[in-house]
Design goal:
single chain, 82 residues, mainly alpha, 3 helices, elongated
């Protein structure tokens, strides 16, 4: 919602569409990344490849979440109290 504040009312629909598209793309990319990491681990580790791939996926996604949190804290404007 913070990104839409800077847009005029006439452009809110377009901004919302762009936001939703990026959100869907990010979800698809995350799913593909998780599937790829698990598949690589399954091919390289017999028996417990799924568990190892899941661990790799968790670590990668955790790092991405931390980066996202830091960027949000740095760049999302704070509400000014009146």
């Amino acid at each position: 919602m913070s990104g839409l504040i800077t847009l005029s009312k006439a452009n809110h629909a377009q901004g919302n569409a762009i936001f939703n598209t990026l959100q869907q793309f990010s979800g698809a990319l995350g799913t593909a990344l998780a599937g790829t990491l698990i598949a690589i681990a399954q091919n390289n580790h017999v028996g417990n490849g799924t568990a190892i791939g899941s661990k790799w996926t968790f670590m990668v996604l955790l790092v991405l979440i931390i980066i996202n949190l830091v960027l949000a804290l740095l760049f999302v404007p704070k509400k000014k109290s009146k």
